[in-house]
Automatic annotation (TrEMBL):
Record carries keyword Electron transport: no
Protein name, UniProt field: Mono/diheme cytochrome c family protein
Presence of keyword Signal: yes
Protein's organism: Bradyrhizobium elkanii
Location, primary (coarse class): membrane
Signal peptide: 1-27
Species classification: Bacteria, Pseudomonadati, Pseudomonadota, Alphaproteobacteria, Hyphomicrobiales
Domain of life: Bacteria
Family matches, as PANTHER family: ALCOHOL DEHYDROGENASE CYTOCHROME C SUBUNIT (PTHR35008:SF8), BLL4482 PROTEIN-RELATED (PTHR35008)
Amino acid sequence: MLENKSVAVLLAGSAALWLVATQRAQAGGSDPQEFTEIERGRYLAITSDCASCHTVPGGKPFAGGRPIETPFGNIVAPNITPDLETGIGAWSEEAFDGAVRKGVRPNGARLYPAMPYNAYTKMSRDDVDAIRAYLNSLDPVSNVVIANTLPFPFNIRATMRIWDALYFKAGEFRPDPAKSAEWNRGAFLVDGPAHCGACHTPKTFLGGDRTDQYLQGSYLQGWSAPDITNDKRMGLGEWSAEDVASYLKTGHNRISAATGPMAEAVSLSTSHMTDEDTRAIAAYLKSLPGKAGIETPLPANSATMSAGNAIYRDQCSACHGIEGKGVAKLFPSVASSSIVRSNDPTTAIRMVLRGARSVGTRGEPTAPGMPSYGWQLDDGQVAAVLNYIRNSWGGAAPAIDARDVSRVRSDTAARPD
């Protein structure tokens, strides 16, 4: 989930099937439950974003081998093609279900939660059988993958029993009868196959979800995933439900554009969901109350705000405008950006230092980019311009200093673009 890659990887070997199901989704009125089992499995594999981990960019679909960064080291995603020796071809349906929804391999070994079985457990057995049917329809690929590359003692899988006891609760999604069908569908997608909490819910030192901070933003792989509750300052409070659905479907809306890990999630997953499902996710997320609290803006006449104002007018205003409003679906509105105002400024700092490229999708094929300023601005100047952006036009966020920028600059230096 590190870098944007072409969705063509996912299409290889199943182009005809993809075309049928995608045309249904684009029609805006199709129900995934009406698909054939293989079509439904393909759709569930997309909503579950399986390709993001199990396909190496440019490699064979679902053949594994992609390193997944965790705080404890890298885990390599396994081969899930129907190859009998190196994939899942010899697995029974029961064994496949056990891995996906219970985190247990056929030999009884525990999986690591880099495989989000704690979310996939929300799916039904029929859902998982459909995914298996789809994977079985693909070409088998012989590719031996050594998945566990963690250092001692994290390489001892038996320790996962403790993790599961603390953080894993098996069980299918249960609809809330007091809520609408759309809300329940959104809740299922967010907490189940789409596993949004894997990135957007803060983690404990053991890597488990802090459930009291559900979807309020987290740090992973050199990025800060934003708060996606309906919080006014740091979340989606300034987005309409239509804005959320448009962002998921096209990667762009009147306020923001998907970059970094989210660009990949849009490219491989959410842009291929039905309109009903993106609207359902939007309805659910917009129902979640925010908890960020009130922040006092930095004084407009402070040294950092004055310096940042000058830098912004010189370097940023040509695209984002003097008032920070940007251009809808082209240049993001920094005045309304929850990422910009996040208490964790990692992503904002990274984008100024290294630039960013937004995702291109069928709905919004133009993928505007932001140039890098890391070569031009020193750490103090980056901090100043971000302090100005974060605390202007009605916004408010904690001050950033040069040390924060130095940390991100150092961390990203060894990472790919």
